[in-house]
């Protein structure tokens, strides 16, 4: 279990909160556009990534595999992050972060669920309260950048309206839990397409969730380091 020290930013200011992660789920194939989703699945199949038996999909991730920044250490050069909104269930309160489901892409072609355990999830150290976003949720914008060979590249950009709405995602997750226990649950939403349609591995990843109504942003930033310090 991971314990996260977070900052809640709301209309009243900022306050710190401790969040003990009891369970974590990475959702996939959560696009509202089913035609685009089928196209995405076909693209993944061509890259050797197995197609899901049903969509959306949910993958359990070990509860300690989460960071709020720093460095993600990887064992394979074929790895990448992706921008997602993150839901944190704390009592009756629903918190929102921005995060990245960083994945070993080579292992993903063999086992998606095992690939999810190879790298930690990363999320912003600051969170918002969903109730302050609910009336304009679909206006929020996700963006990500990859730094590769020193060059910062805009990698993803799109509205969260491309993805399953939070309440629908929560209901779907609850329907799949054997005990329906949602307390201290963290859910990564699934992602939006990349701008060029290609996966880019780099030495740094940044994700932004931008609220144009309140003109504020959440940021998830981390470096990526290959574990190449041994001769094999």
Mind sketching the topology for me?
Elements: E1 3-10, E2 13-20, E3 23-28, H1 34-46, E4 57-61, E5 66-67, E6 71-74, E7 79-80, E8 83-90, E9 93-101, E10 103-104, H2 105-108, H3 112-115, E11 121-123, E12 126-129, E13 141-148, E14 151-159, H4 166-176, E15 185-188, E16 204-211, E17 216-226
Parallel strand pairs: 1-12, 3-15, 5-11, 6-17
Antiparallel strand pairs: 1-2, 3-4, 7-10, 8-9, 8-15, 9-11, 9-12, 13-14, 13-16, 16-17
Detailed description of the structure:
With 232 residues, the chain is mainly beta. It has a single domain (3-226), classed as Fumarylacetoacetase-like, C-terminal domain (Fumarylacetoacetate hydrolase, domain 2, Alpha-Beta Complex). Helix content is 14%, strand content 44%. It has helices spanning 34-46, 105-108, 112-115, 166-176, and strands spanning 3-10, 13-20, 23-28, 57-61, 66-67, 71-74, 79-80, 83-90, 93-101, 103-104, 121-123, 126-129, 141-148, 151-159, 185-188, 204-211, 216-226. Strands 1, 2, 3, 4, 5, 8, 9, 11, 12 and 15 form a ten-stranded mixed β-sheet that branches. A hairpin with a 2-residue loop joins strand 13 and strand 14. It is globular, with a radius of gyration of 17 Å.
Report the average pLDDT across residues. 94
Radius of gyration: 17 Å
Q: Considering DSSP H and I runs of 4 or more, what fraction of the residues is helical?
A: 10-25%
Count of helical segments? 4
Overall form: globular
Cα-to-Cα separation, first versus last residue: 33 Å
- Beta-strand share of residues: 35-45%
Report on the biggest sheet. Answer: 10 strands, mixed
């Amino acid at each position: 279990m991971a314990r996260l020290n977070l900052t809640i930013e709301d209309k009243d200011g900022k306050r710190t909160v401790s969040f003990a992660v009891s369970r974590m789920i990475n959702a996939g194939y959560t696009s509202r556009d089913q035609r685009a989703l089928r196209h995405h699945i076909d693209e993944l199949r061509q890259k050797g990534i197995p197609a899901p038996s049903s969509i959306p999909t949910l993958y359990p991730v070990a509860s300690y595999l989460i960071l709020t920044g720093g460095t993600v250490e990887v064992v394979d050069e074929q790895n990448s992050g992706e921008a997602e909104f993150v839901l944190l269930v704390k009592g009756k309160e629903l918190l929102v972060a921005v995060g990245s489901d960083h994945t070993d892409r080579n292992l993903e072609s063999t086992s998606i669920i095992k690939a999810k355990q190879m790298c930690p999830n990363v999320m912003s150290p600051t969170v918002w309260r969903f109730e302050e976003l609910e009336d304009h949720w679909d206006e929020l914008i996700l963006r990500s950048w990859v730094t590769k060979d020193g060059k910062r590249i805009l990698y993803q950009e799109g509205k969260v309206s491309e993805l399953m709405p939070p309440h629908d995602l929560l209901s779907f997750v609850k329907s799949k839990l054997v005990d329906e226990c949602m307390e201290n649950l963290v859910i990564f939403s699934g992602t939006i397409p990349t701008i060029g349609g290609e996966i880019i591995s780099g030495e740094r990843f940044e994700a932004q969730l931008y609220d144009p109504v309140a003109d504020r942003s959440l940021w998830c930033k981390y470096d990526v380091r290959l574990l190449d310090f041994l001769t094999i």
